[in-house]
């Protein structure tokens, strides 16, 4: 709660939090919120401008742009979040085990991670999509499979630092069980680190998924997705450039909010990072996270 | 005016928060003498030194008069001030390891500084530095100049800075805790070099330290600071023999009791005597 | 130093072997039988089990796993990646020219990214907190949140169609480079710019800056030292930018119809042309390892601390 208060102190961060919250809620309650069926075709309304009934106008098949945007939140943001969560969880489990037990377990796990990381992230994702076939589920699976190793590497480092502290050593000496040490001492302490890294990768992953959909690798018609809406708008870009406006601005707004929030989160969770040198290092880590997510966007 | 540097009503504060760091100091440095500024960390010694050079960070503001050889430094433009720095007012930093650009060999800084002030050629600079470095007991001057800071020891870098000061022949040397980051033996050597530097050049010096043994050895006058305020000023003998202010007495006594304790533990006259 | 280089170079070899092995088994991740895919891609009307068995024998898929791997690896070393399932052409004749095209685009973009981020990073750090700094940061934040395909489309619409200044697609002339390079540079410079700026600012508090000023050096000289040190930190990151951008051109290549690896791999994925995908992955991963190795070596050569110790 304290953390929340600190984030809200910064007005822009408050606005960002609001945007992200609204987006998630709108995505979750899409069927109740959307004014129309996103896939219902009104050929007589093709390329119609904004009206009372259709506040953002209609697309090339006369479908309601607003409803498509709202339904598009699910694949564009919510499912990406789920995939991020899954790969962070996978990475966290491996990272915790490797960082806590060290020794041979660590060596073996890290060799696997190294092997995964020897592929550039985007190529691995593309390769997996190539093998599994086109489609949103396959993209999400490819995503989880290609990102976990990177999270595992970072979380391991964080856990290793915590495991080296005296109170953990003390707990081990007095015979507290491994699981109990992990659950009570290591997980809570490393959680902020994980949150910062995960949130900084989130924004670029949203961009990345929409990029795949834009290329036609992701969700298949007629389902709505922001990247795909932009791709559809692109075909008529020269005659009707305004169709790119709504989905384009939505993506920019949501991704900006996510990125801004991740910066604020970093500041709120780790006030000690505010010394210039540590801040620089943290910045580099966050930039690296952005890059990692960005590779295909 | 017989004073080389006359500081009056020097006030230093943080421009952002408005916190006053030094409320108003006045002191002077006589030609050829050494003024030691002592006090615990955070007492405003270092900020005072930087204020004399007008080198505090952008957010730190200062007011008051700094009359140096009859000229008020506070009124000079940044450009005029830059000409004074190095040439007339020379600073020696606390941490030699960090004072030189880590990505260049030590000689680069020496070259740049001397070319700036004297316009000498590369060979001339090398020649002059070789003599100066020899006089501060640095063996193989050429090799030292071609080494990166991390390849040299703190004491060696400190002596490189002293050697540069010898070539620059400034009127005033400001040494900001030059011995703090060193081990005991290098400390002894560096202090020795400072003494010789004064003897050889007859320049004045401001020597900041919290090591009273070093201060006693090198300084003519002592100024004690606490929380930004000068609590006591006077000649070195007077301060060490008969401190007026309670804080000074406290500083001297803790030093002495430590010293005595050390002597007792070591059994007889110890290294600390130096 | 020499030792370090040799060690780092040798380390790349096991990495390459791991990569090749993973690339080889990649094809088995597919839920479909490769033989079936081949037949489907060739448009065979009726796929019978006999036909599948025959194709398998033709492709050598009935032999033991490790032998197949060894054969494949030897072929790959001779740049023989097999034939495309779709067109039947040798994969290398498709991949080779595309790789060169992508490489050209990548190098042009990396140079633009470095120039843009270093220039802006240094200027903003020196003007920290002023209007210029804040507006550049605001714009870069906004542009980092913008999908590259959207930026690319907008650029085509404005510069190529409305103003008719630049070509919309292809790589016919040097003018064709402008739009794709700008899109990639704008998209990536934001991150590198932030890095350069904050490292420059952290340099400001270093003692050597104070000592330089105390010695009467000019601000220009001191700034050059700060840039030198900031770049030393950034150099490895910039080296890494080459492989990262190399593969991330997929979207931009598609929007601008650049005849490179990105376009090629997209077509291969959509038509399930496994040998092409496999070769693409292998070439990219090998390039990635090579650039990583080179960037570590450059880093070592640039960093006097490493140089002294090794």
TrEMBL record, chain A:
PROSITE patterns registered for this protein in UniProt: ABC_TM1 (PS50928)
GO cellular component terms, A-Z: plasma membrane
Pfam families named in the record: BPD_transp_1, OppC_N
Domain of life: Bacteria
Secretion signal, residue range per the UniProt entry: none
Parts of the chain that traverse the membrane: 12-34, 77-101, 122-145, 194-222, 243-262
Keyword terms: Cell membrane, Membrane, Transmembrane, Transmembrane helix, Transport
Gene3D superfamilies in UniProt: MetI-like
Main location: membrane
GO BP terms, alphabetized: transmembrane transport
Domain ABC transmembrane type-1: start-end pairs: 73-262
Compartments where found: Cell membrane
InterPro entries attached to this UniProt entry: BP-dependent_transpt_permease, MetI-like, MetI-like_sf, OppC_N, Staphylopine_ABC_permease
Family: Belongs to the binding-protein-dependent transport system permease family.
Name by which UniProt lists this protein: Nickel transport system permease protein
Organism: Paenibacillus methanolicus
TrEMBL record, chain B:
Compartments, record wording: Cell membrane
GO cellular component, one term: plasma membrane
Residue ranges of domain ABC transporter in the record: 5-252
The keyword Flavoprotein belongs to this UniProt entry's keyword annotation: no
Keywords: ATP-binding, Cell membrane, Membrane, Nucleotide-binding, Transport
Coiled coil start-end: none
Membrane topology: Peripheral membrane protein
InterPro entries: AAA+_ATPase, ABC_Ni/Peptide_Import, ABC_transporter-like_ATP-bd, ABC_transporter-like_CS, P-loop_NTPase
Gene Ontology molecular-function annotations: ATP binding; ATP hydrolysis activity
Protein family (similarity comment): Belongs to the ABC transporter superfamily.
NCBIfam families: opine_ATP_CntD (NF047578), opine_ATP_CntF (NF047576)
Protein name: Nickel transport system ATP-binding protein
Organism: Paenibacillus methanolicus
Lineage: Bacteria, Bacillati, Bacillota, Bacilli, Bacillales
Automatic annotation (TrEMBL), chain C:
PROSITE patterns membership: ABC_TM1 (PS50928)
Entry keywords, A to Z: Cell membrane, Membrane, Transmembrane, Transmembrane helix, Transport
InterPro entries linked: BPD_transp_1_N, CntB, MetI-like, MetI-like_sf
Gene3D superfamilies per the UniProt record, alphabetical: MetI-like
Chief place where the protein resides: membrane
Name of the protein: Nickel transport system permease protein
CDD domains listed in its UniProt record: TM_PBP2
Recorded family membership: Belongs to the binding-protein-dependent transport system permease family.
Record-annotated ABC transmembrane type-1 domain positions: 99-295
Membrane topology recorded in Swiss-Prot or TrEMBL: Multi-pass membrane protein
